[in-house]
From TrEMBL:
<comment type="similarity">
    <text>Belongs to the UPF0065 (bug) family.</text>
</comment>
<dbReference type="Pfam" id="PF03401">
    <property type="entry name" value="TctC"/>
</dbReference>
<dbReference type="InterPro" id="IPR005064">
    <property type="entry name" value="BUG"/>
</dbReference>
<protein>
    <submittedName>
        <fullName>Putative exported protein</fullName>
    </submittedName>
</protein>
<dbReference type="InterPro" id="IPR042100">
    <property type="entry name" value="Bug_dom1"/>
</dbReference>
């Protein structure tokens, strides 16, 4: 008689199977967590605008924020952290984790501050995702003021140095260096600093200062309403209509330009995949009608946009120019 073999698993086999099942269960439970950690963005992306509401940096931060909200499907709240020519807001970005969940708008004024000998914020602490705006700066005044043209201002300063005031953003900014450069040419304007854009605009429209250093695009509403007009642009050549009759610095022999630049920054050290995700979204924004309309509204250069690969070298080049100007004309 043939004895049938017992195929029931031994106690050792049962323990091994149980352990294997437990291990598989744990692995299955951990997989969703690992996937969640890799998902980007996993929470709101903070858009830091280092200036007060109403200026060009604020407008740019909000329009880009709205785009990213739709394109990346995550909230993008805007934080206005004004002060120290943008250093307070940029300093906050430098303190946050390098995880792509915080961006900041850099302006030419802040770039100038970063070029100072002992800056509180360093460009090397960030990576430029893109340069989105490049536009010439200028001097503006109310049509009903005591001066009507740049020639009027020159005559007044030649007759009485320091008799003309101009609203600027703060010391050692592009505004301030331009004022100091003009003083070296015998035209001693008095710079009056205002941290918030709205305060600068109200000061000149209200007659508290004579001139305003700004970019035409930031003043579009005032220009269209006839409350302000440009009398001088700091540019290589004359602008197109409606400003073709406004003189530019180069034709008058002033060797200073300092165009306004607005770029989008993220913390340096941010993961490459997250950088690319943000960069691709920004490139889609630049190809959109919203961006083209914004550039036209801002009276910015049509080729303002510089992508991720070109943005950082461009800012570094501008930083070196700013350092040389600060060494010559800056407050020591």
């Amino acid at each position: 008689m043939t004895r049938q073999r017992n195929h029931a698993p031994s106690s050792l086999q049962r323990r091994l199977v149980a352990r294997a099942g437990l291990a598989l269960g744990l692995a299955a439970g951990l997989c969703p967590l690992a996937g969640a950690q890799e998902r980007y963005p996993s929470r709101p992306i903070e858009m830091i605008v280092p200036w007060g509401p109403g200026g060009g940096a604020d407008v740019l931060g909000r329009i880009v924020g709205r785009w990213l909200e739709t394109d990346l499907k995550t909230p993008v709240p805007v934080s206005n952290l004004a002060g120290a020519s943008g250093m307070i807001g940029l300093g906050r970005l430098a303190q946050l984790p390098a995880d792509g969940h915080a961006l900041a708008v850099l302006t030419g004024d802040s770039l100038m501050m970063a070029a100072s000998p002992a800056p509180t914020f360093r460009i090397a602490e960030t990576t430029a995702l893109a340069v989105l705006v490049r536009q010439p700066s200028g001097l503006f005044l109310p049509p009903g003021g005591r001066y009507k043209s740049w020639d009027d201002v020159v005559k007044a300063l030649q007759a009485k140095p320091g008799s003309v005031t101009v609203a600027i953003t703060g010391p050692n900014t592009a505004d301030d260096l331009t004022v100091r450069y003009l003083a070296s040419r015998g035209l001693s304007l008095v710079g009056v600093p205002y941290t918030k854009p709205g305060e600068r605009y109200a000061a000149v429209v209200g007659g508290h200062v004579d001139l305003l250093y700004e970019q035409a695009g930031d003043l579009r509403g005032f220009l269209d309403a006839g409350q302000l007009k440009p009398i001088l642009f700091f540019a290589e050549q004359r602008l197109a209509a409606p400003f073709a009759d406004v003189p530019v610095s180069r034709e008058l022999g002033y060797e200073i330009l300092l165009p306004q630049v607005r770029a989008l920054l993220v913390r340096s050290g941010t993961d490459t995949q997250r950088l690319q995700a943000l960069s691709r979204s920004i490139e889609r924004f630049v190809a959109s009608p919203e961006y083209r309309q914004f550039i036209e509204q801002q009276l910015a250069l049509p080729d303002s946009f510089l992508p991720l690969a070109r943005a950082q070298p461009f800012l570094q080049s501008e930083l070196e120019v700013s350092r040389k100007l600060l060494a010559t004309y800056g407050v020591k």
